[in-house]
Sequence to fold (136 residues):
Amino acid sequence: MILDYQKSSLPNDANYIFLSARWSEDSVEYLSDFHNWLGDNAKKVIFFDRTAEYSDTADVAMLLAKQNKKIIPEVANKFLSKYRNVKLDSLNQKLNLVVKNLGWPIVDRLSLGCNSYGDQCDFFSSDGLSYYSDYG
Fold:
């Protein structure tokens, strides 16, 4: 990726650069180096932190299937909240501090899909369709 970036005019021509990944504890320490490496293009960055994740999703899906022949989103979302990986909340807090110090705006993806208490996140839409597609 770095070689492609160095040869490409796309970052220089872009209005915005969206940084979104499955961030880990290890990645936090490299963000300032990455900021410096981006140079003037660092001003274009909009950072996206981690979204809600669920543990044992295969087991959760089977339990939901047994409980609801048709998924009732409100019931399923409340049920899934018991399986949300809350360890990511502290990672998001670390990311938030570092990213704000770098001057990047941050999109808090957890607050987009979860209530303010974090005890319920929308996994399914009102039509019963999953918002997540990379599990399984």
Notes: The mean pLDDT is 80. Helices lie at 2-7, 10-13, 25-28, 31-38, 57-67, 73-81, 87-101, 109-113.
